[in-house]
Amino acid sequence: MSYDLIVIGGGPAGYVGAIRAAQLGKRIACVEKERAGGTCLNWGCIPTKALLKSAELYQLMNHAEEYGLKADKITFDFEKVVQRSRGVSDKMAKGVEFLFKNKKVDYFVGSGQVGKDKKVKVTGADGKTQVLETKNILIATGCVPRQLPGLKVDGDKVVTSREALVLKKQPKSVIVLGAGAIGIEFAYFFNAFGSKVTVVEMLPSILPLEDGEVSELVARSFTKSGMEILTDTKVEKTEVSSTGVKVSTSGKETKTLEAEMLLVAIGVQANLEGVLADGLKLDLEKGYIKTNDRYESSVPGIFAAGDIIGPPWLAHVASHEAIEAVEGIFVPGKKPHKVTVFPACTYCHPQVASIGITEKKAQEQKLKFKVGKVPYRASGKAVAAGEAEGFVKVIIGEPHGEILGAHIVGSDATELIAELGLAMTLEATVDEIHATIHAHPTLSEMVAEAALASHGQAIHI
Ligand SMILES: Cc1cc2nc3c(=O)[nH]c(=O)nc-3n(C[C@H](O)[C@H](O)[C@H](O)COP(=O)(O)OP(=O)(O)OC[C@H]3O[C@@H](n4cnc5c(N)ncnc54)[C@H](O)[C@@H]3O)c2cc1C
Q1: Which of 41, 278, 303, 328 reaches 20 to 30 Å from 173, CA-CA?
Q2: Residue numbers in the chain where pLDDT is lower than 50
Q3: Residue of 6, 39, 146, 273 to mutate, ligand 1, most atoms within 8 A of C-beta
Q4: Cα 35 to ligand 1 centre (Å)
């Protein structure tokens, strides 16, 4: 049987691309070697959010008295917290498997390998192989966690995000190496349940891609909640023993740290292992598949999307790229666009969300801009909810008032950012944002107020 498109990888790039192509009436197969939903649904976005929900609830219940409630002896069962998270992943993965059936995507469970002749060999877990023929291929094999050279991940004392999602018991102490979104979410999670957490980051701030003021606020909040945050600090040596891990650092903080577990969260790397058969060469850039404006690799007919084409490593970007790639292949006249503006979110507490450029970037690019900023404590809804920590900050271009960037730290930041994303897509100005009546009381009022603040007209600050 011959397909119009075979997608290799069933993550948010792969499954979304496959479904979109099927909607266009094409004959599609998706090959996934592990579980539909990819890293996102099984080992990333979704199971972490399930864990974080438990952590947030536990924290909230411990502050019940502030809300006039009595909840004595709040306890937790770590294994059940993890089990719930696995259950959520399972449900979501099953959902994608159902969608494949429903949308008429042929789903093959096995390892896909693209041959020089552009045929795809699928090897199942039992070692049996079959060869599929196709006109086009979309490689969406994603990334795997990057490991620290010379340090073996044993799933017990040394873990990456993957092992951290299936821990059998809670570690008493954790060193989190790397303060990007993944490291910071796990740091919040373990600390919320009472593990002693130390975060080690080589760069000058945690969440280094975020606006400086945002990173500072999260660092302050984390320190207040008992975590040790070491920035500008590099790992020199690690020693694993039967009881835990010793980490010697250099830089701003030269010390020897000890903990029961080390979580290595130093980023990800391209996952191309076994994907290309001998003799098939695609141009790569830093290990990632190099693609043109149509998401086509250096070999005609072989396309790629998602984490495998490089940063930003985000599920929503991966899905968007896959849709663009597939429509570029099958929709006559469609000119795919490359993603330039996208939200990035970190689901710790306080939450972090951003889109567009930071204030520092605007300065570096010598843009004419102004800043509008309002604190959560000025919002009635935030204070009523007991969530007064944080701010909304917008970077506004001058003289036209376009939105160059937005940075939110605080409760529900990851939901609030959507309005600013839409505004940027529609090329709305700051005046159009505050001319839009926002319901009261809502946190979204702060977006309108931040827009007003950029004119020096904020009412509540
Ligand atoms: C802990 C963690 C938390 C995260 N949280 C967020 C978040 O909150 N928000 C967000 O936007 N992003 C988050 N991410 C990133 C997000 O998961 C990725 O950006 C996203 O999954 C990328 O989608 P993808 O389809 O490109 O790749 P993946 O989701 O990695 O899917 C690739 C799939 O390809 C399969 N595969 C690989 N090789 C083969 C082969 N040869 N044959 C068949 N199948 C193959 C893999 O098994 C995998 O299922 C997180 C990541 C991690 C690790």
Answers
A1: 41
A2: none
A3: 39
A4: 11
